[in-house]
Amino acid sequence: SDKFTTQAFIDAKKNNRKITMLTAYDYSMAQILDESGIDAILVGDSLAMPIQGKDSTLEVTLDEMLYHCRCVARGVKNAMLVGDMPFLTYHINPDEAVRNAGRFIQEGKANAVKLEGGTSMAAMVKAIVRAQIPVMGHIGLTPQSVNIFGGFKVQGKEESAAKALVEDALALEDAGAFAVVLEAVPEMLAKLISEKIGIPTIGIGAGKYCDGQILVVHDMLGLYSDFTPKFVKQYANLRGKMAEAVSTYVSEVRSQQFPEKQHSFTISDDVLEKLY
Ligand code: KIV
Ligand code: NA
Q1: Cis omega before residue 200 (within 30°)?
Q2: How much is the ipTM here?
């Protein structure tokens, strides 16, 4: 089959073939991504912003994530499906982490989970992998740490912070993670990390030397405009296209240009006559 697997992640890095990822939160979007040849889809807790209208990911619940995961799963044929573990579902202890990761597989129909943190989360990663659930790490700007970071800013610019990120990446590889997301870290630090570890790095705001790239789909399609990070490239302005379509609809309904005959159903004159 053409299903993208954890082995395909490792092979891609070996063969210098860049890995492509995007987020999706619903069935139709998942279908579009899958049919366009994306390697893997993340049901990210970033849905807090474009889907839920919140300003951080911290309130997203496991049940909300599982609901979106199931919706996305129905639209996916070939891409690997990764479920993003929300805040506090993997921090307490390895047992809870395994049970909650398991729900992504059993109820969310995901193929793997992602969680934020490096060295500090290695025990959780190890426990989840021991339960035969593939884990993707995520270090650098980890949005669930916003209250510790004091905002969304680039990570690893100072020597000690950069050293800690290298340690985090090595700890994730050692714990059995199959890939690691690097978010908002300097390009040359991401290059160094990508060279130091055997598992692929998936960059977002981490430059061109990562083994793959991921973006939030609502950002790259121009569907969400409350906040656009520096690292986003907008490949389309669907918000503009959609607004145009909606205002055309509004004016056509008001001017009675819509609906037309072809959008309407008929009834025989015989039946109609009897009603008058
Ligand atoms: O939630 C998310 O979409 C993410 C990616 C941006 C890596 O964690
Ligand atoms: Na996330």
Answers
A1: no
A2: 0.99
